[in-house]
Design a protein that fits this description.
Layout: H1 3-9, H2 19-22, H3 28-51, H4 57-68, H5 83-95, H6 99-118, H7 121-133, E1 137-140, E2 156-159, E3 163-170, E4 181-187, E5 197-203, E6 209-211, E7 227-235, E8 239-240, H8 247-283, H9 297-329, H10 339-368, H11 372-380, H12 382-385, H13 390-401
The chain binds flavin-adenine dinucleotide.
């Protein structure tokens, strides 16, 4: 009897995977809704977006239309108020179907929440309704001069009339040239405090902006190319928070959402690859032996090893997200709880490389052909190089373990 026979003829004796193991309690409906969007909207466009480096605009609109345009924003502003956990569940689910859409959505959500938390009431009223309808935000932080140290930007803005003149080179901006607006991190050197970091909202259609193509191995739809801002005038009403002093929001809003969101994407990509490999192993039958690939014990062990890795990351992911939600509810500063975030981003970005590689192996030559499984591998490889990179995060974790300051 083959695995396929067992699946079709016997219900008894088949262990079902408990929902509580794969979804945090209370988020089951949200997870199901996300999978409906993923199956019906994201999956069908994922390949073409990858092949043609096409920005997943329609998929992002579908996500917004399903009510996920402002998921971390409080309900009184029209948001979903889903917290860190809801955000993580959605990102993981979307990434199983289209990593580019999921990544653009993660950056959009982090940008939106940064605008919401650091902006004033007028700015919230000006931007949040658009976001709910499908406007897309981006984060323009990383610069070529400082690379992976994206919190140490060298660009600057100077005062000009009732606004600022911005000059900045950004190395990677997800949704570059495609987002409606960006939260851009720069320095204002005349700021009174030591921390000169200043956040400006810059619109995509402003004069002085140049975008460059993103031609990468994976995440090919997400347009994460460089952007240049030359003498771009930003009115004072588009400055978020204070002149300088914005590192607080880096540590309490941008980094936590960025780390959790990207980690969620890598868990989703790994699960998506494994699902594709399971499907392939069950369907492929060798005519000579009459056995499917899934009938070989060594293959089942590969699947098991992959799933254990995915679930190790997923457990850490949801425990971290729930812990952060508790901190937020109790008014504790998120910046004092970054340690699990560093670990989960590192672990998820590590395991996605391993699991997508195993999934390709299980899928055989077909897995190597241009298509679903090799795409997961290419997409997932971005995790370790995306900032804070795994090398930087391991250093922060190690420094914390020996109790010396993590940040030099
Ligand atoms: C697909 C993609 C999307 C992105 N989207 C965005 C976005 O929307 N917004 C944004 O602002 N940025 C974005 N980034 C940039 C990202 O967050 C990182 O800043 C960037 O990937 C770091 O790459 P780099 O080549 O500049 O790093 P480099 O600094 O040149 O690093 C090169 C190598 O040196 C290592 N290294 C660097 N510093 C240290 C250190 N202190 N200790 C030990 N090792 C170190 C790195 O780990 C890496 O292995 C994106 C990047 C990618 C790849």
């Amino acid at each position: 009897m083959t695995i396929n026979d067992i699946n079709t003829t016997l219900d008894e004796g088949i262990m079902q995977i408990s929902k509580w193991w794969t979804c945090p309690s209370g988020y089951e409906n949200l997870q199901e809704e996300a999978h409906v969007v993923g199956k019906n909207e994201l999956l069908s466009r994922a390949s073409i977006s990858d092949q043609e480096s096409m920005y997943p605009r329609e998929s992002l609109k579908a996500i917004a239309d399903a009510g996920f345009g402002a998921v971390t924003v409080p309900a009184e502003y029209g948001g979903l108020d889903a917290g860190f956990t809801g955000f993580s569940v959605l990102a993981e689910s979307f990434a199983q179907y289209c990593a580019s859409s999921a990544m653009c959505w993660v950056m959009h959500t982090a940008a939106t929440q940064t605008l919401f938390e650091s902006g004033n009431e007028e700015q919230r009223q000006r931007y949040i309704p658009g976001v709910i309808k499908g406007d897309v935000g981006g984060l323009a932080f990383s610069e070529p001069a400082t690379g992976g140290h994206f919190w140490n930007v060298v660009s600057s803005a100077t005062r000009k009339g009732d606004g600022y003149l911005l000059n900045a080179d950004k190395s990677f901006v997800t949704s570059a040239g495609e987002a409606d607006w960006y939260v851009l991190c720069t320095n204002y050197h005349d700021a009174p405090q030591e921390d000169k970091l200043t956040f400006l909202i810059v619109h995509n259609d402003q004069d002085g902006i140049e975008c460059f193509p993103f031609n990468a191995m994976g995440l090919r739809g997400n347009s994460s190319g460089p952007m240049k801002f030359k003498d771009v005038f930003v009115p004072t009403e588009n400055r978020l928070g204070t002149e300088g002093g914005m590192n607080y929001y880096n540590e309490n809003t941008v980094d936590p959402l960025f780390l959790l969101g990207t980690a969620s994407c890598w868990v989703g990509v790994a699960q998506g690859a494994l699902n594709a490999a399971i499907d392939s192993a069950k369907k492929k039958v060798h005519a000579d032996t009459g056995k499917s690939v899934a009938d070989y014990q060594v293959i089942r062990h590969e699947l098991a090893k992959g799933q254990i890795l995915v679930d190790s990351a997923r457990s850490m992911l949801y425990r971290t997200a729930e812990g952060l939600d508790k901190c937020a509810q109790e008014g504790l500063p998120i910046s004092e709880h970054l340690f699990p975030l560093w670990q989960i981003k590192t672990h998820a970005a590590d395991i996605v490389i391993q699991v997508t590689n195993q999934a390709l192996q299980v899928s055989g030559g077909k897995g190597y052909l241009t298509g679903q499984v090799e795409k997961y591998l290419r997409d997932g490889r971005a995790g370790a190089v995306m900032g804070p990179t795994n090398e930087i995060l391991r250093e922060w974790i190690g420094r914390t373990l020996i109790q010396v300051p993590w940040f030099e």
